[in-house]
């Protein structure tokens, strides 16, 4: 993951490291190369501009120009700025205490990895001692209910489903069922579409109103770069999201979605999907990702 951008950043910072003295021109050149690397990584232009301005401003300060190892000092500034772009620190899920039900609504476009992400999250929370229930409310993608049932049986987490197309009725019944049967964490897989679609938004708005979720997690496909950011913004404007799960991070060589999502939407990436298997889920740690990018 992130191989392309990491290689470029390593090349850029290597040129400055070890130099006893660097000039303002050296800094400008390096920042310019960073700018190109970020744009090639498919980072949002506004985000790149802000990043570049702030980095230049700080790097031209006395601290870098007069540092013992100015290259290293410069790299530290870039690292801190990347960490800030990624969201500073890991943000935990909004979980209630175990004796109160927590509801998590998963939303996103078809193919982003929503159904897989729902099961991964259930698996993780079950391992942490919670008692999750999965709810199959993706009534649009033909195989979604069956897929969730298969994943649920693999991890021994029950899946609530009904054989009709009224998503609001299903989630209302699922909430009643969950509460009656002592499931303290209810994870709802909702329907996406291949692209943004008003019917989908209306359905999700109605489902969200019925659930009043503790966490509304947008599932974003890292491979789609900036497009994922635009889709996240639309979901946030229309439905309101509280966090992001970034899937297919294992296949993302560029990093554009990861680097743009937080500063473009204000919503933290809480988890990453790092493979197709059920255990391939990790909390998102900005510092770890920044270290990967800067070698
Ligand atoms: P949905 O339509 O949003 O519910 O998408 P699915 O959960 O069916 O996932 C679509 C495809 O992406 C499937 O083939 C998944 O196995 C795959 N997928 C999901 N998450 C990841 C991930 O983190 N990494 C990789 N490599 N593949 C993933």
From TrEMBL:
GO cellular component entries: signal recognition particle
Compartments (UniProt record): Cytoplasm
Binding-site residues for GTP, renumbered to this chain: 108-115, 189-193, 247-250
Primary localization: cytoplasm
Top-level class of the enzyme under EC nomenclature: hydrolase
One annotated GO biological process: SRP-dependent cotranslational protein targeting to membrane
EC number: 3.6.5.4
Catalytic activity line of the entry: GTP + H2O = GDP + phosphate + H(+)
Keyword terms: Cytoplasm, GTP-binding, Hydrolase, Nucleotide-binding, Ribonucleoprotein, RNA-binding, Signal recognition particle
Keyword Hydrolase among record annotations: yes
Domain SRP54-type proteins GTP-binding: 268-281
Keyword Acetylation attributed: no
Molecular-function GO term, any one: 7S RNA binding
Top-rank taxon: Bacteria
Protein family (similarity comment): Belongs to the GTP-binding SRP family. SRP54 subfamily.
Domains (record comment): Composed of three domains: the N-terminal N domain, which is responsible for interactions with the ribosome, the central G domain, which binds GTP, and the C-terminal M domain, which binds the RNA and the signal sequence of the RNC.
Subunit structure, interactors included: Part of the signal recognition particle protein translocation system, which is composed of SRP and FtsY.
Record's function text: Involved in targeting and insertion of nascent membrane proteins into the cytoplasmic membrane. Binds to the hydrophobic signal sequence of the ribosome-nascent chain (RNC) as it emerges from the ribosomes. The SRP-RNC complex is then targeted to the cytoplasmic membrane where it interacts with the SRP receptor FtsY.
Protein name (record): Signal recognition particle protein
Organism: Thiospirochaeta perfilievii
Positions spanned in the full protein: 1 to 295 of 444
